[in-house]
Design goal:
- It is a single chain.
- The chain is 17% helix and 33% strand.
- By secondary structure, it is α+β, with helices and mostly antiparallel strands.
- The protein has two domains: 7-128, Rieske Iron-sulfur Protein (3-layer Sandwich), CATH 2.102.10; 149-349, Naphthalene 1,2-dioxygenase Alpha Subunit, Chain A, domain 1, CATH 3.90.380.
- α1 (159-167) crosses α4.
- The longest helix is centred in the C-terminal third of the chain and has 30 residues, at 272-301.
- Bound molecules: FE2/S2 (inorganic) cluster and fe (ii) ion.
- Residues 166, 171, 175-176, 290 line the site of fe (ii) ion.
Length: 350
């Protein structure tokens, strides 16, 4: 059983946005975990993130101007550099001295890797804020290559329901009922899972041909491995003797009621570009079905129910909540994270 409570995991990296959405000299505003964040890329290409509220009179800094180096507030022209340092208060006379550091804006740590921007969200209470505990997981074999295709869809729910919905192995025959994905007949599924860094991994296995009619495009049924990593990162590798198609799904809490799901594809298919329009359509259709079902779920969640998890099809969801709780506790108690997942064979029908 799982109480229906909304607790954000902090002191972790979240997916912020695809790199190509932020060009040199540009800034934009986004909300993460209910907090407004200004994201900008300097002329030299470095991405930075600041709390998007002017410390003077609370106007979003993103309403102002960015010259490629510094942000200037649109109300009284105060200036801030990429570290959040206040560098100028134009209304001060030459003889009016003031320690500008009193007005610094909180800065967020940012990493950019494989065409994605990640943001580190620490605990709000400064005494509980920790430095990053882990490296952002990357797609193996693609060096610093950006994704071939990336799409983001907003789900109208708290992050947990998006994550659990995406890792749930029993919903496909009901939610993804489309001819190109699979038949409606239920099959026995047996998969091994092992603990892995800050999460768990579905052991590498040969995909059944019946799993999808699109596999012939990449040279037959691939071997697949699916990894889940806290807070909400799923990496799927599919490899045949000829090609590799990998997928990063990253879930970002925007607020308690909105969550972004980003689906980034990496492939070695030389003709993959031809598939892009079709893939874009299929991903939107597929993720749209996941979004629509969690939208319906909101009706029931308003009654604040206890959620019932069953074996084995809800075991990954249970692990997700256990991992989240353990991580938060380990941070709270200043100790090493101990992965609560044990190797296990899971069996379900889907
Ligand atoms: S509100 Fe930003 S400078 Fe006054
Ligand atoms: Fe789904």
């Amino acid at each position: 059983m799982q109480a229906n409570e909304n607790t954000f995991l902090r002191n972790v990296w979240y997916y912020a946005l695809p790199s190509h959405q932020l060009k040199p000299g540009q800034m934009l505003t986004q909300t993460y975990l209910g907090q407004p964040v200004l994201l900008a890329r300097t002329r030299s290409g470095k991405v930075f993130a600041l709390h998007d509220i002017c410390p003077h009179r609370a106007i979003p800094l993103s309403c102002g101007w960015f010259d490629g180096e510094e942000v200037q507030c649109c109300y009284h022209g105060w200036r801030f550099n990429s570290a959040g340092r206040c560098t100028e208060i134009p209304s001060l006379m030459a003889d009016q001295e003031m320690a500008l550091s009193r007005f610094d804006v909180p800065q967020y740590e940012i990493r950019e890797t494989q065409g994605n921007i990640w943001i580190y969200i620490p605990e709000q209470d400064k005494s509980k804020a920790k430095p990053p505990q882990f490296d952002i997981p990357t797609i193996p074999g693609f060096a610093d290559q950006p994704p071939n295709l990336v799409t983001t869809i907003r789900f109208p729910c708290f992050i947990d329901h998006a994550v659990v919905g995406l890792m749930d192995p029993a919903h496909s025959p009901y939610v993804h009922r489309v001819w190109w994905w699979r038949s409606s007949q239920l099959n026995d599924e047996i998969k091994w899972y092992d603990p892995s860094a800050y999460g768990f991994t579905m052991r590498r296995h040969k995909m059944a041909d019946s799993m999808g009619r699109i596999y012939w495009l990449i040279g037959g049924a691939p071997e697949a491995e699916i990894q889940f990593h806290l807070p909400s990162i799923r990496i799927e590798e599919n490899a045949t003797s000829r090609h590799r198609v990998c997928n990063l799904t990253a879930v970002t809490p925007i607020s308690e009621t909105e969550t972004d799901v980003t689906f980034a594809f990496y492939w070695t298919l030389p003709w993959g570009w031809m598939l892009k329009p079709l893939m874009r359509y299929l991903i939107s259709a597929f993720l749209g079905q996941d979004r629509d079902v969690v939208a319906k779920q909101q009706i029931g969640l308003k009654t604040n129910p206890i959620l019932r998890f069953i074996k084995d099809s809800d075991t990954p969801a249970r692990w997700y909540y256990q991992l989240k709780r353990e991580y938060a506790q380990a941070m709270e108690e200043n100790r090493e994270f101990v992965n609560p997942v044990k190797s296990e064979q899971l069996r379900w029908r889907a």
